[in-house]
Structure formats: structure tokens, C-alpha cells
Amino acid sequence: METVHFLIFIQFLASLVQGDVPVFNRTLSVMEFNPGCNASISPCKGNAMDTPNIAYTVAKGPKDSLHYVFSSIGAPTILVAKTTKTNMKLKVNWTKLLSDNVTDMKNSVQFSPTPDYSFAVVFTKLYEYNDTDDHANITQVPLLDKLNMSQWVVRDFKNFTWEDLSLNSDAKQNRAVFKTSMINVPFKNNTNSSVSFSMQVFGTDNRETIFPQLKYTANSTLVDVELNEVTPSFLQSRYAVEMVFLSGDGKAGIKESRSIDDEYTPGVFKTVDWKMDRHTSKQPQELGSFVQWKPVCYLTPDRDRQNDTKVKYYPSVNTTVVPQKSLAYAYYGDQLPTVVMSATNVSFGLEKDKFYNKFNYTVWTSVIGYGTPPADEISVLVIVVIIAGLGTPVLVIVVGGIYVCVKKKTKLKVKADFGAESSYSAIN
After folding, report:
1. Region class of 420: left (phi > 0), else alpha (psi between -120 and 50), else beta
2. Which partner for 31 in 171, 178, 288, 391 could form a disulfide, CB atoms 3.0-4.6 Å apart?
3. Distance between CA 312 and CA 309 in Å, rounded?
4. pLDDT, tens digit, for every residue of 220-265?
5. What would the DSSP string read from start to end of 352-399?
6. pTM, whole model, 2 decimals?
């Protein structure tokens, strides 16, 4: 009985710590690949050098719906549109989208009717630098090297070629995978080199089962960036990616938070949130968008915690540049001059981890979504450990104090009784 009461007490404390967080589910449509792009449309026939790659799915909730569009056209892009209307549809003018004329691409991807809110995240560049001083910090590369680029290799994702997304994706699991093609490999003498972006949508709140075990919500998608067997250009190569965050309105900023709990990602107590905040005094209820990650990546496909390394982010800056011929360019089109755009770099590596060359592999996970970034709550198990850790010493002190008091009181009583009743007298 005491055990049952103890567990109930623990659950009560857990509810106080975690709070009453509302959870809701979304119904996901089966992911479509290249919707409306058929053989009757000339650009849709595709070829090994130019594959039309768009994945589309809808997450319907009780009050609104989120429309997800993923693409590698121009550069790997996640586009999300939120609507309260039930009849909103994606419309793609494939002839214009795949046109060689950049001007034609503008407004070639649209939603009808217009969504209430939209945002996009574009992966624009892959940086490789020669970290001769082992700083694991792209800002520590000497300025001279930045000017003559002798220690840098900058690769624009817009120049990559990509495999047909249907080869590696899973429509039923709402997972799209964009992987670089072996044709025109942007790396030296290695056709096994690949860069891939995996994007998966979920209809409920949960946590991924592999490290870093990020928490995701019904308003978000998990994104993996994987560098596999990339042939380094230097003996001390490290890599970084550049991202651009776009939104119709808002204010972008990066913030790092700490936690006392590393239960899900051992050894990592920080979470990074790159937010497009729309909260204002006039619109306090407006929700924005976010990119969230833990500052850790993994150097083997099994994500062994013994083979992880640091992810470093850099201050976000306002920008006006988005890759032409990208999905974001095609969607925002004529609106681009009024769109809020923020850019940042994320680099992989830690001092003395022997650089990318040691494993020739890196995978990094983030969560991209609408609304408020998910927060890690302290689990019941951790609460039990804390209570046990703090409660046991206190219990020992209390019980010990009571024992000492009782013992002392008993001795005084015995002494008093003995002195009152004894008729003892000395023999001598």
C-alpha cells in the first residue's frame, strides 16, 4: 500500500513539473511525389541530369491544416503553409517551374486559396574548410584564406544533381529523401560520395527512437542531413551548411537554452531554437515557425554515442538572397522583396576529434515546424532519482535526529528515576 501511495505522489509531482500540455493529432494524407507532373508535360519526363523532385503531404488537424512541400529543385527546401480552410490545394505550373528562364519560375508554385501563414527553410551551401589549427570554428579560419579561398571549398546545392526521390522515399511513412546523384558528383574521384536530406512528417507528438532522440510535434517535420563518404579536399577537413529561413512576416533570432536533464541525449544539456517570432502587442496570439536542434551530430550511421561530435551555430543575419530556381523562389516570387529572410551557418566538429576524415560520415538532425518549439520536460524517472537523491539524506537526518532525541530523553528519565528511589550508601 505504501508503494502505491508513493507512486501516486511521484506522478503528482511529475504533473506539476511537466504542466498540463495539450496534445492533439493530425491526420496525414499519403505523400504524393510530383503531383500533377505527368508524361504529357515535356519537362516532367525528366532525365538522369534533371529530375523533377517535389514531395507533398497534408496534415489535417481539428482547427487547421499544414501543407508540407519538400523539394530538391534549385536547393533542398522545406515549405510549410498553414490554413484554416479545408479546400486549399497545391498548384504547380510544371512548365514554368522547370523552365530555364528564371523569371518564368516566379509564382509557379502556389496554394489556392491563399494560406494564412507560410514559411520555408532552404539549405543553400555546403562549406568545406581546412582546419589546420584544429579550432572547429569557421570564424577562426585566417582572413587571408577566406579571401583567396585556398583553404575553402564552397559548393552551392543549386549545382548538385539529385536522384529521383521515389527511389529512396517512403510515401506511406510520409518520408521524402533527396540524395545526390552519382552523375556529376561534386566531390573528387568518388562516385560513392553522397549528400542526402531526409524529411519526415508525423501526425502526433512523440520522440524519435534514435539519437539525439529529438522531440517532435504534430506541427513539425524531422530533417536529417547526411554526409556519407564525401571525399575530403584537405587532410583536416571539416564541413558546415548554410541555411536561409523565410517567412511572410516575423522576426528571426537564435536562442540557446539549458536543461538539467540529459536523459534522451546523454552528455548534451543544450537545445538551440532558431525562431521566426510573430508575437506582437497587436497580435499576441500569432504563432510563428522554428528550426530546433541539439548541438550534437553523429559520425557513424548507427549513431553510437561514443562517436558523436559537436554542432556549432553562428549568429543569424538578415539577408535578401535566396537561390534562384529553388522552391522558395518559385513560391514567394514577386513577394520576395517583402519576405523576411534570415541566414545562419551550422558547422560540424569538435577540437581533437580528428576531423571528418576519421569516419568519412556525419549525420545531423533537426526539427522544423509551425508554432512553439517543443520543450524537453523532466521525465518521471528523473524526478524519482532527484527525490531519491535529495530525500534519502533528509530522511536519514530526520530519523537520526529523532533517534538521538528519544535516546537522550530516555537516559534523562532513567537517571532521574534512579536518583529518586536509590537508598545506596557508601561502604566506607
Report:
1. alpha
2. 171
3. 10
4. 999 999 999 998 999 999 999 999 999 988 899 999 999 887 889 9
5. TS-TGGGTSEEEEEEEEEESSPP-PPPPHHHHHHHHHHHHHHHHHHHH
6. 0.84
Mean pLDDT of all residues in 49-62: 90
The three-class DSSP label of residue 279 is: coil
d(CA 288, CA 253): 12
Q: Does an H or E element contain 291, and which?
A: strand 289-293
212 neighbors 268 (Cβ within 8 angstroms): yes
Could you give the CA distance from residue 17 to residue 29 in angstroms, rounded to a whole number?
A: 35
State the DSSP string of 164-217: -GGGT-BTTTTEEEEEB-STT-SSTT-TT-EEEEEEEE-SS-EE-SSTT--EE-
Which residue has cell 490554413? Answer: 83
The Cα-based distances of 399 to 1, 174, 396, 404, 406 in angstroms read: 22, 58, 5, 9, 10
Q: Contact at 8 Å (CB) between 227 and 239?
A: yes
Rounded to the nearest 10°, the torsion over CA 139, 296, 301, 50 is -50
Question: Is the predicted pLDDT of residue 19 greater than 50, yes or no?
Answer: no
N-term to C-term CA, the chain: 63
- Site of grid cell 529530375: 51
Tell me which residue has cell 535578401.
Answer: 320
Please, which residues bridge with residue 198 across strands? 177, 224
